[in-house]
Amino acid sequence: MASPQCENGYARIARELLRVIVRTDFKAIEIRILLAVIEDSYGWNRKTAPLSSREIARRVWHGPGHLTPWFERWVRKLISGLVVGKVLVKEGRRHSPWYGLQKDYELWTLPQKRNRAKRVQPGYSRTPKLGYPSAPRLGHVHTPSVAAKLNGSSCSGPG
């Protein structure tokens, strides 16, 4: 049975900052990156912590086996996006960076709501109009008569 105790360590963080993190539309992996940085910085009563992107990737990795290079590059890209968005502060040189959370959340430039809908090619709608001549042919036609017309068959419907 798990029994976490404050005597074993804790990260003291302002409730206001925690609320802003919860309400901002971060991706799940970005939240895990933020928590890894908070653990090493606020968890040791520091504003920043000596963390490399590889170390952060190791902490947020949940897949089987070893850390993959693809995942490490992806985490590095997300970290740089958080730094550019002023959510994370990066101090130090390239090979020995120190990361910390930007407390002044009004400086964050990430959008509050991200549009995660899939992009649609121009001229197509999300659901093709039946009988529309430029509707996609494969996988999107639901009625047999329309499918037959698009394929050039003279069959007008089921049986």
What name goes with the CATH superfamily of the largest domain? Winged helix-like DNA-binding domain superfamily/Winged helix DNA-binding domain
Q: Portion of residues in helices?
A: 25-40%
Named CATH architecture of the largest domain: Orthogonal Bundle
Query: Which parts are unreliable, with pLDDT below 50 for 5 consecutive residues or more?
Result: none
**How many domains make up the coordinates?**
2
Q: Could you state the order of secondary-structure elements as H and E?
A: HHEHHEEH
In one word, what is the shape?
Answer: globular
CATH level-1 class of the largest domain: Mainly Alpha
Strand and helix layout:
Elements: H1 15-23, H2 28-41, E1 48-50, H3 53-60, H4 69-84, E2 88-92, E3 97-101, H5 144-151
Antiparallel strand pairs: 1-3, 2-3
Helix pairs in contact: 2-3, 3-4
Question: What attributes characterize this protein structure?
Answer:
159 residues, mainly alpha, 3 strands, Arc Repressor Mutant, subunit A, 5 helices
What does this structure look like?
- The chain has 159 residues and is mainly alpha-helical.
- The protein folds into 2 domains: 96 residues, Winged helix-like DNA-binding domain superfamily/Winged helix DNA-binding domain (Arc Repressor Mutant, subunit A, Orthogonal Bundle), CATH 1.10.10; 39 residues, no CATH class.
- Helices cover 35% and strands 8% of the residues.
- It contains 5 helices and 3 strands.
- The chain has a 3-stranded antiparallel sheet with strand order 1-3-2.
- α2 crosses α3 and α3 crosses α4.
- The chain is globular.
- The protein starts with 14 loop residues before the first helix and ends in an 8-residue tail after the last helix.
- The mean pLDDT is 77.
